[in-house]
Amino acid sequence: MDKWLSHPTALKIISLVLALLLWAVVHIDPDSSPQTVTSSIDTKTIEAAKINVEGLDTEKFALTAMEPTVVRIDVQGKLSDLLTASSIDDYKVIVDVSDAKPGIQELPLVVKLPKGIQLVSMSPRTVTVQMEEIVTKTFDLQVVAEGKAAEGFVAGEPTAVTFSTETGEAGVQVTLPKDDMERVGSVVASVNIEGADKTVTEKKAKIVVYDADGLEMTNAIVDPTNIMVEVKITLPFKKVPVQLRYTGTLPDGVSIESIKPGIEEVTVYGDQKTIDGITVYDGVVVDLSKVKSSGTFNVKTQLIDGIKSVDPEEISISVFVDPTETRTFSGMTINIEELAEGLKAVVRAPESGKYDLTVSGAGSVLSKLEASQITIAANVAGLGPGVHTIPLDIALPAYVQTSVGDGKSLSVTIEIVDEGAAGAGTEEEPPSVETGTTPTDTPAATPDPGSGNGNASGNATNSGNQ
Question: Region Disordered: which residues (predicted)?
């Protein structure tokens, strides 16, 4: 035995065996089976793992601040597992705010790691959050137009097509944290009309919330988020009063008690020069020959005096008629107009120097008529000394006309004498003759239905638009 142990070859074999045993002691995992060799373990550091928020009731609260928003974590695991979970999104850092209250508070962080990987350390382990109560308030919506319409056109006020929130309320519901709600300045929907030459209809506009300084509040939640907007693009326009005009004649035995348009003003459109020159609109023509009884009917508005369009295109006219009656006003003063200086006018016929005027119209109108509402004038402009027959110019209220009987004339005989001539004024003259006076101006010369002035031609000059 001693001889074998002292042999060089035996010593080499023993040395090899001892070396193998020593290697095994170092590398064999005592927790594994004798045949299992330990796998390689490694560590990894994520410098900026994002903190995710869970449990937030967005209908009641808003997370308005969180510090920090990322954390540093150190993990370890098998190299194969670490290589598999290579993305930063595989490492979840979570803060649960389901039990948080309004205000500033510190909450713990929880880490969710991929399978086979363990947390070594995390910094920090808590996060500070600020919670605010969410409130909802309804605001009136402002609709504004941006840009300018095409040259020669004007833009009307933009309007929102009828809308309501999901709750059925009018206006716009704005949801914000309580503190932010106090900073709301306006809720606006804007529509661009640059270069538009026709009405902009059903154009979608986004609703934006601005603070008192005009800055957009991007965290605001609005209901609805969009609306449809309309902007009228038209020619220049103006609202003017309606003045009725008449054509035709009423049937015999019928007189107007009143005629009234359904609206007092219309909107006329045209170029700016035309619009500037219009003060009334008399494009509504009533055909009296079609009026048989009291009632309401529609009349189209006509394009006149360069007007391009009228709104509305027709208006309703209410007409009330009564049987015709007559009434006589005796001893009416005749006003002599436009008598030249140095001349004197004497009424020769009628001999009294006064005029008995018979008028006709609806009984309800005549019953209220006063003599002071009637003016009788004879214009002698340009006439010299001598005897002249002058047609009378009779101004009557609306819906009243002169009634001339057999042998009656709507004229007077006037003698004009030169006051400087010898013997002038020696002849007896009718009393109470007014000369050189001018009656108060009457309304515009639009024929009044059934109203006459009593001049030689029998034309009426009263407006009748009452």
Answer: 420-466
